[in-house]
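Hi there, hope your week has been kind to you so far. Please have a think about how the structure follows from the sequence. I've dropped the whole record in just underneath, so have a look:

_____
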Amino acid sequence: MRQKYKSWLVVTKILALLIVGCRNNVTTQCNLIVTIANDTNRQLSQITQVDRSSSVQDSQSWSRAITIFDQAAAQIEALQIKDEQLLVYQRELAELWQTYARTTNDAIDARAIKSLATLTKANNDTQEADQKLLSITKQLNSYCGE
C-alpha cells in the first residue's frame, strides 16, 4: 500500500510540474507578444511627440508610422506561438497592425490628392481598428494575467 501511495505522489508531482511548465510556456509567449506591442507603442509615441512639437505633421512621420506598423506585424507573425488562444491574438494583432499601415498610407494618399472621401474612409477604418485593438488588448491582458 505504501508503494502505491509513493507512486501516486510521484505522478501528482509530475503532473504539477507539467501544469506549471505549460503555464510558464504560455506566460513566456504572452510576454513576447506584449513586448512587441509595448515596443510598437513606444516607437509610435516618439513619432507623435515629434509631430506635436512641429507646426505641421509631415508625411515622413506618417511613413515612419507605416514602417513601424509593418515591422510590428512581421515580428508578431514570426513568433513561434503554440497556445491556441494566443495564436488567435497573434493573428488579430498582425491584421490590426496591417490595417493601421494601410489606413495611414490611405491618409497620406488622400492628403496628396486632396480627397476628403478617401481621408474620411481612412479615418473611419482607423477608428474601427482602434476599437478592435482595445478589445484584443483587454482580452489578451485578461488571458495572460490568469
